[in-house]
């Protein structure tokens, strides 16, 4: 099962567990949960996550190139997001919520695959680069209210509508050639000039890991429609979960191949991408109420966005450009969450 199938599975689990929590805990109705009226909740949290962003385009109309023509996969790790969430109740059952977060991406790997038609869908050239000096930032802004209140003051089900901005930057250093096919080493990509101009050369030593080779910045702008619930199993223990659908996502992406820019072949950015897609987010966890006004929580979170339709465009140093279909763009981030919530 790949990471994107896992994201869909985790979202399904959130829905099932939310329903199961209500059924299982009906027998605890004799112990009422806290019913204090809260006006403001502030949560300082962390999200220990890993990410996977991948994109590909189709320039096979050029003749020798395959479909996909190129696929880049940024798999990062060691990303400890710091986040702050403020939830303000305008009335007992209506609220506004703002969440901001950011992190340095500590490492990972870029896999760059290039395809020729002669190889029938197998990579003609594969290289690896190290991800470093990168980061992510996000903002969620929501307005919502209570849809259902559970018996005996044990919690409620909220619905909300909002906006998400999610930006990631990956910087890749060095190039290590992993594979170079026979077609990659023998196909002349520029038959109009003297000599052989192949895609790759077997045994190429690559580029030092001290050299920055690629930087990529992607931004998603999303409409959020979701539901969230918290249910008190005991006075001091509750379970929470949320599911968010993002029916409209707008994508922008800029990719710069620094070595090719320096050689004068491309301008900066080398490639730009635009598209529209959809996505989903999910959270699930448990909260321990340490005092009447302070709680600690731990959980798991998944964010996932996928392209439906888009355009990939290259930019040459002489001002010319070429456009081809952007056939794939997906971003996935998931991992453990933890935090402290103060209520006033």
Number of helical regions: 3
Largest sheet: 11 strands, antiparallel
How many domains make up the 3D coordinates?
1
Category by helix and strand content: mainly beta
CATH H level, superfamily name: OMPT-like
Rounded average pLDDT: 89
The backbone outline, from C-alpha atoms, is elongated
Distance between the termini: 44 Å
Taking all Cα atoms into account, the compactness measure Rg is 24 Å
CATH class placement: Mainly Beta
Structural summary, described in words:
With 344 residues, the chain is mainly beta. It has a single domain (3-343), classed as Beta Barrel (Lipocalin), CATH 2.40.128.90. Helices cover 9% and strands 69% of the residues. It has 3 helices and 11 strands; from the N terminus they run αββββββαββαβββ. It has helices at 3-24, 182-186, 258-262; strands at residues 40-57, 65-91, 94-116, 125-131, 134-149, 155-180, 207-234, 237-257, 266-289, 294-316, 321-343. Strands 1, 2, 3, 4, 5, 6, 7, 8, 9, 10 and 11 form an 11-stranded antiparallel sheet that branches. A hairpin with an 8-residue loop joins strand 3 and strand 4. The longest helix has 22 residues, at 3-24. The chain is elongated and about 80 Å long.
């Amino acid at each position: 099962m790949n990471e994107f199938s896992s994201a869909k599975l985790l979202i399904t689990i959130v829905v099932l567990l939310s329903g199961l929590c209500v059924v299982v805990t009906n027998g605890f109705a004799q112990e009422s949960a806290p019913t204090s009226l809260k006006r403001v909740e502030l949560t300082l949290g962390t999200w220990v996550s890993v990410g996977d962003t991948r994109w590909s385009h189709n320039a096979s109309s050029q003749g020798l190139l395959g479909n996909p023509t190129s696929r880049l996969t940024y798999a990062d790790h060691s990303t400890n997001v710091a986040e702050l969430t403020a939830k303000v109740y305008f009335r007992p059952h209506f609220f506004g919520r703002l969440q901001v977060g950011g992190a340095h991406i500590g490492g990972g790997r870029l896999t760059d695959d290039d395809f020729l038609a002669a190889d029938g869908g197998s990579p003609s050239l594969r290289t690896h680069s190290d991800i470093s000096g990168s980061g992510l930032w996000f903002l969620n802004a929501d307005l919502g209210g209570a849809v259902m209140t559970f018996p005996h003051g044990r919690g409620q089900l909220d619905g909300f509508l909002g906006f998400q901005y999610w930006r990631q930057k990956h910087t890749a250093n060095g190039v290590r050639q992993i594979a170079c096919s026979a077609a990659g080493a023998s196909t002349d990509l520029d038959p109009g000039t003297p000599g052989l101009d192949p895609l790759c050369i077997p045994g190429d030593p690559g580029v030092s890991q001290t050299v920055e080779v690629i930087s990529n910045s992607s931004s998603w702008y999303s409409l959020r429609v979701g539901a969230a619930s918290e249910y008190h199993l005991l006075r001091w223990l509750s379970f929470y979960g949320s599911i968010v659908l993002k029916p409209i996502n707008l994508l922008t992406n800029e990719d710069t191949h620094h070595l090719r820019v320096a050689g004068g072949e491309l301008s900066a950015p080398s490639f730009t991408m635009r598209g529209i897609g959809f996505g989903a987010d999910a959270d699930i966890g448990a909260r321990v109420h340490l005092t009447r006004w302070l709680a600690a929580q731990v959980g798991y979170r998944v964010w996932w966005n996928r392209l439906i339709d888009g355009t990939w465009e290259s930019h040459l140093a002489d001002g010319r450009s070429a456009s081809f279909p952007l056939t794939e763009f997906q971003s996935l981030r998931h991992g453990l969450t933890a935090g402290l919530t103060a209520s006033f």
